[in-house]
Amino acid sequence: HLDRIAAVDEDVHAFLHVSGARALAQAASIDQTRREGAPAASALAGVPLALKDILVQEGVPTTAGSKMLQGWLPPYDATVTRKLLDAHVVILGKTNLDEFAMGSSTENSAYGPTRNPWDLTKIPGGSGGGSAAALAAFEAPLAIGTDTGGSIRQPASVTGTVGAKPTYGGVSRYGVIALASSLDQVGPCARNVLDTALLHEVIGGHDPRDSTSINRPVPQVVNAVKKGQSQDLSGMKIGVVKQLRGAGYQKGVIESFDAAVETMTKLGAEIVEVDCPHFQYALAAYYLILPSECSSNLARFDAMRYGLRVGDSPAASAEEVMSLTRGQGFGPEVKRRIILGAYALSAGYYDAYYGSAQKVRTLIRQDFETAYTQADVLISPASPVTAFAIGEKVNDPMAMYLNDLATIPGSLAGIPAMSVPSGLASDTQLPVGLQIMAPALGEEVMYQVAATFE
Ligand code: GLN
Questions:
Q1: Active-site residue, selected from the candidate residues 42, 66, 104, 151
Q2: Which residues belong to any copy of the Amidase domain (predicted)?
């Protein structure tokens, strides 16, 4: 895999940092343990992985795609990083992302965009485009992503790979640089559903270091995949969300989605249409809640504690250094969201904006609850469009935000959701992803349905 990275990553640019020597040393030590007769640490022992550069690994550069953290070396491991190392998964390096995970194309990375291996002129999705592209380019068989509004599912969709966002609290956020704490979730990515499930079981589980972590056993998703591989969906009710198809969705995407529905019918599933009337407000609510939380989370980048420091001199005040550093360290999308969030949270507007958005969030959660009385899982396209050209939407934030149309409702509700490839779009010949959404803690049924797409 290191050879493959050396051969293709100049074009793809999936990685921000390749830990070559470290990975080889780790592999050699795993090999040695095996020679000594020790049992494998996990089903994934010795398998290489690409880590999104928003999870910390002790002593390995971590930038979150921002100039703000250039050159910073974390002094500790994220819980997920530690679990991977304990399971003897070999970490190949850190993958590219939109700055602080804000974006849908990786074009907001301060280190240049990642390119989609299916067509190097196209975006690989975002924010976790680096992880998804590393999988699609065969630079790594496993990857870790984070999903706040779709950053695992939309990149999986546009690169023809698999990515799952667990139930909120299912995987520890300790050591993940925070974007929006009430939405952020770490998840597994791979080229097939079984590998994704194997990785899910390695990273999942309760962590006392994350106060929102759920104290429940890790879902048995590998068994669920085996169940799904029997290709039998009889007795399963699958809900097609009326609001997540139609206006704004590309023709080739809808065609591929309809074909997937037909396949599920043939496998014995009963298809029902479900109505989620408040989903139309999901994007608006998300783009108030997320900036509000991120304006607060990003206040820690104050030029004093870590990372970039600009304009430091005996004559400069702390405020001047902070303002110069934040002015130069953050890119335009990050600044836009900090300003929007600070405004939405300000005294005179808090109730009107942040308060209303929270109410909408509750209504969306209730829509899901009602829908799950009618269906076991819900489905939709994962992304309204296939991969678009690099540069096409970069100057139009609203057009960029619309890429998250299908993924944001699930994020606001905290439910598990994943994207599996459903084929190529007839109009662009590029991959389309099917989104499968389950009730909270319903990972097993989600993986079971996903496995019928292997
Ligand atoms: N594209 C979405 C955004 O820009 C999702 C980001 C994410 O999930 N990290 O906010």
A1: 151
A2: 1-444
Distance of CA 286 from the midpoint of ligand 1 (Å): 10
Q: Per the domain annotation, does 316 fall within a domain?
A: no
Atom of ligand 1 nearest to the CA of 286: 10
Does 352 have pLDDT greater than 90? yes
Q: Is there a contact between 181 and 87 (Cβ–Cβ < 8 Å)?
A: no
Which of 104, 147, 186 to probe ligand 1 with, by most ligand atoms within 8 A of CB? 104
State whether ipTM is beyond 0.85: yes
Q: Hey, CA dihedral for 437, 442, 447, 448, is it positive or negative?
A: negative
Identify whether the C-beta of residue 53 lies closer than 8 Å to the C-beta of residue 64. yes
Tell me the CA–centroid distance for residue 409 and ligand 1, in Å. Answer: 12
Q: How many domains, the chain?
A: 1
Q: Which domain holds residue 40?
A: 2-281+358-451
Active site residue 151: yes
Q: Quick one: which atom of ligand 1 is closest to the CA of 403?
A: 1
Query: In angstroms, how far is the first alpha carbon of the chain from the final one?
Result: 24
Residue 300 lies in a domain: no
- Taking CA atoms only, the protein residue closest to ligand 1 atom 4 is 103
Catalytic, 419? Answer no
Q: Which atom of ligand 1 is nearest to the CA of 103?
A: 4
Q: Residue 366: enclosing H or E segment and its boundaries?
A: helix 356-374
Told to judge if 313 belongs to the known catalytic residues of this protein, a careful annotator would answer no
Question: Does 140 fall in a domain?
Answer: yes
**Axis-axis angle for helices 332-344, 282-297 (nearest 10):** 100
**SS3 of 192-223:** CHHHHHHHHHHHECCCCCCCCCCCCCCCCHHH
Model confidence pLDDT, tens digit, residues 91-144: 999 999 999 999 999 999 999 999 999 999 999 999 999 999 999 999 999 999
Which residues have any ligand 1 atom within 6 Å of their CB?
101-104, 126-127, 147-151, 179, 290, 404
pLDDT value at residue 305? 87
pTM flag (> 0.90): yes
State the Cα–Cα distance between residues 118 and 137, nearest whole angstrom: 8
- 251 three-state secondary structure: helix
Q: For residue 24, what is the domain's CATH number?
A: 3.90.1300.10
